[in-house]
Input
Amino acid sequence: MKRRDFLVSGASAGMLAGALAGSGGVSQLAAAVLPQQGNFDLVAVRDGEPDVMFDRAIASLGGMSKFVKKGQKVVVKPNIGWDVSPERAGNTNPKLVGRIVKHCMDAGASEVYVFDNTCDAWNLCYKNSGIEKAVKDNGGKIVPGNNESAYKPIQIPKGKSLKDAKVHELILSSDVLINVPVLKHHSSASLSLAMKNLMGIVWDRRFWHRNDLHQCIADLITWRKPDLNIIDGYRVMMRNGPRGVSEADVVVMKQLIVSRDIVAADAAAALIFGSKPEDIPHIRIAHEMKLGTMKLDTLKINRIKI
Amino acid sequence: MRRLAWLKYLRIVISLLFLLFTVVIFLDPAQWIPEWFTKTVVWPQFAPSLLKFIVSAGVVSAGFILFSLLALVFGRLYCSTVCPVGTIQDIVYRIKRKLTKARALKFAQSSNILRYSILIIVAVSVLAGYSLLLTFLDPYSNFGRIMTHLVRPVVQLGGNGIAGILHNNDIFFLPKTNPFPFHWASFISAVLFLLTIVVMSWSRGRLFCNTICPVGALLSLFSRFSLFKISLDKSICNSCGHCSKVCKAQCIDIKTREVDFSRCISCFNCLDSCPSDGVLFKSGLKLNEKLKISNEETESSTRRNVLKGVLLLSAYSALKAYGARVTGGEKPTEIPEGKINISSPPGSLSHDLFNKNCTACNLCVSVCPTHVLQPAFLQYGMQGLMQPYMDYHSGFCNFDCTLCSEICPAGAILPVDPEVKKLEQIGIAKFIEGNCVVYTDNTDCGACSEHCPTKAVDMVPYKDGLTIPKVDETICIGCGACEYACPTRPYRAIYVEGNLVHKQAEKPVHEEIKIEDKGEDFPF
Output
């Protein structure tokens, strides 16, 4: 499987290189593959393996070094909420998480931390999602998010419902936050996307459910926006989210959305899922609070088919 | 028999290893210890494996058979090696000998009436379906509660301290763990038992094992007829008393030069104690001498009875003082949850079977990865005291986990196939609309449905684009994820009503998803 993927991606890269670069040297292959770099508001990739799609997306944004400087501490926040296998798509794809960690390390990050405040027992989630192994294999550090003492109080002055919260200390002490949710159906929040995924950096989620969930989701973004949002749409849970009941809930879509704009990323992912962004209350609220835009036609989008 | 003196050292090594293993299985912070190890360590524990044998009739799973047979051949090896309380008593007594200049122990008359009365009462009550007495008297189960309720919290505190330092230095292999709720009944029972053991062993070595312990009494019935026995070579013995001084069971009578092997806990201390090498450990067939069974001794037995009474009474009165569970209170909901029955863990089949077999060793409470298993107070009634129940305010049952059923040494929670467990309905979720955030606040919530592994709790259209929970009881298994996640207090908007007899839920069925993928473009 892996070899075939490699061959396929290699072949298409070669063809693109031939078509676009012409006189460009082989050493410039990566640059040549990508028509333009760096100026996109959002990159959408489809039909590749998770790691291959991410390679293409990040390259078109100018590489990970645009986001991670040498010596910086990075937090990669995937969704590891559930004790389910990768095929169930309840958590972010481990291959994608591993690849992101590797890109960060290659860009010179001093540390790459990965954690989630899980819903199921944390050690089982970390293990059975495949993410613990993927992170370790690529040089990152997997950190438990199960203990309240690691969460520090913050103020959210611009929040309407959520005025304060306790967030994981790594979020406070790190230089770069990379948000890596998985696109899936969600019984509470309609869809679980990039903004919803940040609920996992907070300790007390009960308060959110008790005090207008959608408003709270948007409120936290007023406190801190991730430096990069990468939405995993490789396998998509179409119903029974966020945990899912069986593999029958999952459709292999092979999609990936990457953007600095968390609202735009969520809007694009919602469209891929088949929903209208304005129908997802927290996307609409965040748009209205000007935390980003859900009007994708105002953005410069790079669409990559592999 | 100095040439057999190595038996003593072997006994010490094995007992310390067993103690160590039995300690660590209760302290595992993040399921580092594999399931097979825990199972192996508790396999020989006498009382639980006997109970397990009664329900499952699995000879292979019954460690008590091995140690009964061993008792028939070599004596009470269980008491000297496997029993964690036995080893603790040895340690306490040794400390006393090191620290004080107290005189060595002497021969004491046996307390047969006391120990066999207790054994009979316990046996009858177990056969009648009440394990409560055994719960209070079985050494392993008491040890389990000492570990779970006294040692584990302390180790956890220390472990979290170390973890904190490590985390500050960017080392994350040791996780911090969250303490689980405090339980008065189990705590007091553990403290009382520990005190009893320390006081008794400090003053008279293995006194507990030959007076109160029902396992010791039962094994003594076998060791009485043991093939190999400790005895004194009457042709050599001059009643110097060296052997008697090292006997923790006080069972060597130097005046008559007899050894009451029914009380011998097989420590083998005496083997190399005799200056003339006159302590024998060999087959009784050759000895051809009848062992006298002493029938006196009623005076001290009443004293023991009083002690036992105090133990039971104080535990009971402590329980009475412990009130009903109090939940937190903010933005109060008004409709009390009408929970009538709690749920027993999956694999236990019914409350009745569970209550009969559990000795409340609390091993499952210690290893449960979600902490949903907590010792009950009177939720099962008096007979289920300290037995674990599904406490959905502490956690919820992990859908794919069957750990408690695998490690339960008593067969109270029987091994259950994960796929079967996923359909074992231990209770049914009940929704109280009047408490629900969607109803009271007109905002989205859905925490219950989020956590539901079968989507028995699903969100259905309500009004203004909102959705509200609806329970499909046929596919609900009572895992309690909904009750745990529900954010309302003091009363939750969804709770699990326990099934006294577990039922089988239906398997959730979902049609295949068909999506038209044009495979060409992006929808934006």
User: Anything to note?
Assistant: Strands of chain B lie at 228-232, 252-253, 258-259, 279-283, 373-375, 388-390, 424-431, 457-461, 467-471, 494-504.
